[in-house]
Amino acid sequence: MRAVFDALRRHAAERPGTVAFRDDAGAVTWQELAARVAGLARRLDDAPQTIALAVPGGIDYVVADLALTLAGKRQVPLPFFFSPEQTGHILTESAAEAVIGADAGAFAGSPLMVIPPRAAPVGALPDYPGGAERVIYTSGSSGRPKGVIIGDRQLDASLSALGRVVGASTRDRHLSVMPLPQLLEQICGIFLPILAGAECVLRFDATRALLGGPLDGLTRAMEEIRPTTSLLTPGILGRWVAALEHAGAIAPSSLRFVAVGGAASPPALIRAAEAAGLPVHEGYGLSECCSVVAMNRPGENAPGTVGPVLDGIDLQIVDGEITVAGPTVMDSYLGGAPAPARWHTGDLGRLENGRLVVEGRKDALLVTPAGRNISPEWVEARVNADPRVVSSALTLRSDGALVLIVVQAAPVTTAEIAAPLADLPAYARPEALILTDLSEPDLLFPAGTPNRKVAAALAERIAAVPLPPLQQTERLAS
């Protein structure tokens, strides 16, 4: 992270009046940003070592993140989309003694020291001594957050490798859509723009669209800001592509690199996005490996893969599972043993012509009463290719029936869902369908991936519509 602070100091000296970050409330120049970070870091000198960060986003979040790092603290971002129970678990497990937050009332009666996100700015940005940590909590498949400890080693390696892929420069303007408490957006929306001297615009309406709000929050931001780079999930990408196709429009011509991750992107969606003028590049990663492991490169996009492995990462397929070694692997889970030198991701995959193909979660495999193994992602990818589908979840009901739950962004019929499933072998073809939308509580994680425990419970609770059965000739062929 020393390179980030060196870059911030350089921009403040050489381009003091140039805007660095914008949000819904205003803007901050490089000089103002450096002074605000230095001021809050000084305020934190006498604060406890472990500090939670309860700012939803915007420039105040950027300043607080950088100040906590500069002060050598262990920061614990509190995602605003987590439940009160999850937030309470984080605060207890992390043993945070203070919190940076604008809403002091939210922590009334709590023993936490509440620190405002703003402090008197000072002129000089001190050298970064190193040693800061951040504990990134991931909701995981169980919904119980796990704290991933990330420090300078992981961030430096990730920033170096990603910087070569993105090729950011002072001419870029990044639109931040993903929530800043997520590690990937901290990297892409804060640190990479600072290293490149690029402007970053933070629009909360665009983030709301990602989390199920009106799509026009994203589309309006794209048209007004005319960014060159951004980071999206497949769910919001699908909604945007569908809207562009419906309107007979194309994406802003300013865009040169849009990363998409957090869940699998069907190749058909990537191709539809490219046809709509969106230069999307799918990647793959996980918090335990500092967010990004592989990424498609500009000019070398290969839909159906997540691209070559990043420089400096040693990826091997062991018994069908993706494993990772190298400097981006986390130190440990909070309170856990040190991470092994080679991290087993739990994801199934293969290398194909030097590119990584991700085939689904090892622990998501469904075993039918007939003993057949089914990777749900294999089936779901066919349905998710429809831009009207935000996400889907294949689950096995207690009576042994395969049930497909589809989250719609726009109306889609049973026949339209059944069509891309017709050539599946009989054992993998869903027997019943549940159509729902983004209002279904807790069904999707913020990245757009399904919460499989919630999906399984939903399949037991809600009556499903039968899908058309296979013809006898099709069954014999399967």
UniProtKB/TrEMBL annotation:
GO molecular function: long-chain fatty acid-CoA ligase activity; medium-chain fatty acid-CoA ligase activity
Domain AMP-dependent synthetase/ligase: 8-101, 135-334
EC code: 6.2.1.3
Keywords: Ligase
Keyword Ligase: yes
InterPro entries: AMP-bd_C_sf, AMP-binding_CS, AMP-dep_synth/lig_dom, ANL_N_sf
Top-level enzyme category: ligase
The keyword Phosphoprotein is assigned to this record: no
PANTHER family the UniProt entry points to: ACYL-COA SYNTHETASE (PTHR43201), MEDIUM-CHAIN ACYL-COA LIGASE ACSF2, MITOCHONDRIAL (PTHR43201:SF5)
UniProt family annotation: Belongs to the ATP-dependent AMP-binding enzyme family.
Name of the featured protein: Long-chain-fatty-acid--CoA ligase
Organism: Roseovarius indicus
Source taxonomy: Bacteria, Pseudomonadati, Pseudomonadota, Alphaproteobacteria, Rhodobacterales
